What we know:
Blueprint: H1 15-26, E1 44-46, E2 71-72, E3 79-91, E4 97-103, E5 112-115, E6 120-126, E7 134-137, E8 151-154, H2 171-174, E9 178-179, E10 202-205, E11 207-212, E12 220-226, H3 232-237, E13 241-247, H4 249-252, E14 262-272, E15 278-279, E16 281-282, E17 301-303, E18 305-308, E19 311-312, E20 315-320, E21 322-329, E22 336-341, E23 351-356, E24 359-367, E25 370-372, E26 377-383, E27 392-397, E28 407-416, E29 438-449, E30 458-461, E31 480-487, E32 491-495, E33 499-505, E34 520-523, E35 528-534, E36 540-546, H5 549-553, E37 557-562
Parallel strand pairs: 1-17, 3-6, 5-13, 8-10, 9-16, 14-21, 20-28, 29-31
Antiparallel strand pairs: 2-3, 3-4, 6-11, 7-12, 12-13, 14-15, 14-18, 18-19, 21-26, 22-25, 22-27, 23-24, 23-26, 27-28, 29-30, 31-35, 32-34, 32-36, 33-35, 36-37
Amino acid sequence: MTRTGAPTPRATLSRRRFLGVVAGATAGLTAPLVTGCARETSGELLRSGGAELPRRFTVPLPVPRTARPVSAGGPGGSELYEVVQRPAGVEILPGVRTTVWGYDGTFPGPTFRVRSGRAATVRVTNELPVPTSTHLHGGVTPPDSDGYPTDLVVPAGGFRPGAAPAPTGDGNRGGPHGAASGGGHGGGSTPMASHVPPGAWTLHERTRDYAYPLDRQRAATLWYHDHRMDFTGPQVWRGLAGFFLVDDATDDASGLPAGPRDVPLMLCDRSFDAEGQFRYPAVDASLTGVPGVADAYMEGVLGDVLLVNGAPWPEMEVDAARYRFRFLNASNARRYRLRLDPPPPDGSAPFTQVGSDAGLLAGPRTHREVPMSPAERFDLVIDFGRYPVGTLITVRNTLGETEATRDVMRFRVVRSARDDSVLRPVLAELDLPRRSEAVRTRVFDFRRTEDMGGDGAMWTINGKPFDVGGDLADPALGTVELWRFSSDFHHPVHVHLAHFAVVGRGAGAPLAADGGWKDTVDVRPYEVVEVLARFDGYRGRYMMHCHNLEHEDMAMMGNFRVV
């Protein structure tokens, strides 16, 4: 009998044999982008196990609350925020309380709205049963506040690295995850955390302060999420993520939609068990023992319920006016290609992109479809004034595997309204780097490596799993380097601290959606992507990694040190 919440039985392969099959199937494919054998999606669908799912477009879109500082007026006008990571029951499926691990017990967490040049400190208290590490994604942040995966806030009386793991038990009853056999790093082999020397752990008892100077931070749609060693995937799946929006004078003067027409939209996918709890194929549901997922899901976990701001397939009532939507792909592994149905009746492109990961573009760009890999952000203006009042407009995901995952949310145009926003041809001065500025070229290959000397197969960078004590690069502060990323699969590559410009894909130009300053780029199967990275901010140890969180947890990370 199959346990409630456990993955559907299937013919499973060992990780070693699974990778061998995939490697054999893709041998000899060397084109810049494989369109036949390589899938557009990047993961395995985990279906909900008996939960009654709502009809689409019946739940109103929620907007996460805005965090308020508990004190202000410190040096330079700095602000202090406090947030508590804790379990809580929230209504995601109508009429059901799902247990989440949330910042302040909410999913998504509260939205921090801060000002460039005004320092912010976020005091995080951990009341969960496991350690956490909070990373400000896209932040120009000192290394000791960057959310390094072994720099942990440990809960009082909870699990600590180096301690004996708690009994796994029945994860379907004791918590939001469903346990699954097999998997881990190399089919149940030694966890990556066991390779961390004891002195490499930095442990903060229950509470720690993350300092964000914001003096080198342009206005941008950033986000924060858990970054714990080996367990980022399941802990983000449980709810540890939220928006961090930075404003500045340039953004203020842009004329873009503001106030209630400036709306953050966190896209993610989840699966649910028969009792309405989150379902995830973790090897160890306690998240204290062997990390990783069941072998069938090592490419990445895809949920069958699409959530926007934590609500399933919501609907939003809008004025017949322009709106600025800050789209964030906060999924573990799911890629999206967004389009509007119907498109504007006048035949114009439905999306006007005004911002990327790290802030405003130089000028607006129009798109008929927008591709989004995990962790990417797109600030998109949609002009509902082009539609008659009463129109229903659906945001579709053309990469969905099922009818349900091809729908994201719906807008309902309910009234005429005054619109004072403008779309100016020039939005910001970016000073993007040029190839002539690069002082060095480096190559980073993101790939499955099968034989890891007894540890089975792992997702690796340059053929090596993550080494907490080693560095893959040593760029100098203030310089620009050309970094060349290659891959065997879909790998959304994220670089901490440094922002970059995408300057090439294979032998061709960047995609239309690659514009502006970025911190994450979708490297597609058998493709080489070139970026010019500028290392401004701080000296110290930072990371790059694949932001498919299952790949990250299976060792696809690497350090670099800014010198």
